User: Fold these one by one.
Assistant:
Number 1:
Amino acid sequence: MSFSRIVCHRFFLGLLVISAASVTLAAQSKKQPPPPPAHAKAPSPAVTDEYVHKEFGDNCSLLAGPPQFVVDLDGDGMDDLVIAARCKNPLADQAEYGFLVSDPYDSFMGFGDVKVTSTFASDEPERKGVCLLVVHGVGPEGWHSDKPKPKFVLINLPFKTVTVKRLALKKKTVLGIYMEEKGEGEETSSVVYWDGKKYRYQQLGSTLE
């Protein structure tokens, strides 16, 4: 074999090795999808009115019945808290206690001004003021932290029961607050989830019961 052929042969072999290595590196460096979020758990010990009054004021109190959840709703790796409560006029306390009043349900229905929708009263007296309180965790202590934390009062959600489960979106899987509804949405289900900026409401359809 001539010297020029040997050189060409080695050159092509080198190209094949480089190409194979590039393909291997590209496959290794391809971004892997993140693992699914961990399932929700119950706070231990359970949250009491003392905590609620500290974080949301005396006008908010725990709602007996629905479970409490510790879960990473915003995907930052820190434990968040979800509890059902009853709050009287939360807009009056949001500046004092540093929380945000949000109405994902009526925003979905086309009513975006929470100052207006917060005045919507339920026809059922036992439903007045019923809401979900969400505390986004900060640092290793999560929702227990004494540091200022993002906090939300989600009003006008027509839930009969609540649970927290995984929700598949277009590009990722998150955790959502699933509800079986009562009132106008009786026998339907829905979910509220964090979209990176705010909480959104989404209808899921009729229940199978």
Number 2:
Amino acid sequence: MTTVEAVAAGMPVLVTRCGGPEETLAGLDGVAGRLIEVSADPAVIVEGYRQLADLLERGELDPGYARETLLGRFGAAAVADRLMDVYAGSGTAPGAGPTMTRERV
């Protein structure tokens, strides 16, 4: 979520191509920031920062577009829609499950 929060705040991001960050920024590399390879080599990070600085200098990042894209993916309405789809598929709406009681031991 840190990546989403940074992009929502208009901050350019430098994240690694590993699972969550790569999935979060799918289609937004060069728009919200830069994706770099996972590496123990500091030169990879340095090069990523240089590329990010070049994007900033050339004005190629589009934080507004990136924010709107991530809002469409992870905003409250998007999450609520996906959650309702899950409940609809399971046939169980929130609060409609069996009533739980606690017995004293």
Number 3:
Amino acid sequence: MLSAATRAPAFEPRGNIASVARSLPAVYPYRYFAANGGLASFTIEKLVPMMDEAGVDRAVIVPPSWPGDRNDYALEAVKRYPNRFRIMGRIPLQDPKSAALLPKWQEQQGMVGVRVIFNNAQTIPWLTDGTANWFWAAAEKHGLPVMCFTPGRTALLAPVAERHPQLTLILDHMCLTAAMLKDNTLEQAVGQTVALAKYPNVSVKVSASPGISREPYPFRDVAGILKRVFEAYGPQRSYWGTDLTNSYAKASYRQRIGQFTEELSFLSESDKDWVMGRAIVQRLKWT
């Protein structure tokens, strides 16, 4: 298996993993995050030894949303470890002038795509009021993969996938959140995620298990959800990810790997090879 955190390449025997991680510089305020089971800080110095201990070769960094549209710390990580990290960067989506950034977006060291989020009172309307319209066509034109997080509104991405068939869309965290457990909307949200599998340009990051589980590791109560999503998308369009910083107290880095490599009986050895790294590396063209 690969080694990358979403898991990444050299397609070798199991042990090397590619994972989708997050870049959380200590200088940002994380009191809320830490109080809810996350980390007060998550630095390069913290992440690299964890990857080494878990046998992860590479990681795709997804910068956090709360500091704003910043990629500086993720870019620093790539500069220090150019063979181990790539970035799905953030962009001021609400500003059409940001279109000027996209033609040279991947000229930034380690930048392989863009991550966009629609999950609060400010950003949710952007899916329907025209704010984001410019972005989909521009990302498609410039061949930029896009990670989307649209909890509860994933169905709104169907027209995007249909109108822009050459746009690579990756559903982040299966577009599921812990809040869905409380308001009993989890099944409906899973249904929306599964429905988009009919579009060949849509794929999914199956990384939300700790957050949507009511149980301790190995989170057996979400195995059915993972199976449903995996069977819809298949091994070449499903990517493991740590989601480490959102639920740090619930499982170690190694356990998050073990959940997929040891606990999910519906995954064959070939499936694991794809899900744990080969698929995301190919999707992001990380050579």
Number 4:
Amino acid sequence: MSTLRDGTIVRVNRTLLEWVGASRESILSTRIQTLLTIGSRMYYETHYAPLLRMQAVANEIALVPSTCACRWWRRLPAEPR
């Protein structure tokens, strides 16, 4: 996934689309914060957002999707495919 500095999703891969059970069109232009649990949203805003503003890149981010955003949340793989 790639986002703008404000968290707006501008690019997403097929794996994430399968995980959240959504179409590419419905995810693009959405802010990443809307897909996260409250705890992950707070962590994103306090740790990753500042890093992204300073360095413009962050790799290997681990956050928990909200149950509203991810209908398959109980079945997400623990390891990358």
